[in-house]
Design brief:
Distance between the termini: 107 Å
Helix content: 55-70%
Largest sheet: none
CATH topology: Lysozyme
CATH class: Mainly Alpha
CATH architecture: Orthogonal Bundle
Mean pLDDT: 86
Radius of gyration: 33 Å
Number of strands: 0
Oligomer: single chain
Order of helices and strands: HHHHHHHHH
């Protein structure tokens, strides 16, 4: 080895700048791919979400059209809000809004201030003692007639009550009969193996089909 030859030979310097540049380019490409994937996923879910919104608005519109044809004794603004309540409460309890409309038609003919001979009140014709118990269960402040003739609260309590009956009797026809005759009466018929009157359920089906 020559004395003037360096102990370590120096070649080309490391490609530091090139490596950094390639790394940044890769990062940019990766970011664009990730952004594309996110946009694609969001777009897919948004397309599925929008029909759901449209369906909700359409159903509420149909409910309102039914209410507007009836002598409810309620202001138009109240009817619009009531249509939303019927939809939301029916959906929350896995019930068909049209099903609820048919029940209201039979029970009160859509008259908010209706009172039966037995003392049932409001759109869904609920007995005061039943409504009071349900209101306490649901966390609704009980104020007697003021609660029962509040269309929004009457609907909430009525749908909740119907859902309880369907759960208890495991049969929609029997549950509807219990709604009209009272659950104690219907349970007595079942215990004695007696026939449950079919008239109310038949009337309900006919109303549901023509609502």
């Amino acid at each position: 080895m020559a004395l003037n030859e360096p102990l370590i030979r120096t070649g080309h310097p490391p490609h530091t700048k090139t490596n950094i540049k390639n790394g940044l380019l890769f990062f940019r490409i990766l970011r664009k791919v990730a952004l594309f994937v996110v946009i694609f996923v969001l777009s897919f879910h948004l397309l599925n979400f929008i029909p759901g919104l449209n369906q909700r608005e359409q159903t509420i519109k149909e409910i309102l059209e039914v209410l507007e044809r009836q002598p409810t004794g309620l202001a138009n603004v109240t009817k619009e809000e009531l249509a939303e309540v019927i939809y939301e409460e029916a959906t929350r309890h896995n019930q068909d809004p049209k099903f609820i409309l048919a029940l209201i038609a039979i029970e009160s003919s859509f008259q908010n201030w209706s009172v039966s001979e037995q003392g049932a009140k409001g759109l869904m014709q609920i007995m005061p003692y039943v409504a009071e118990s349900l209101a306490q269960e649901m966390g609704i402040e009980w104020s007697g007639d003021r609660t029962l003739f509040n269309p929004y609260l009457n609907i909430r309590i009525g749908i909740h009550y119907l859902s309880q009956l369907i759960f208890d009797f495991k049969d929609i026809g029997v549950a509807l009969t219990a709604y009209n005759y009272g659950p104690t009466y219907v349970k007595g018929l079942i215990e004695r193996n007696e026939k449950i009157p079919p008239g109310y359920y038949r009337k309900f089906i006919a109303t549901y089909q023509n609502i």
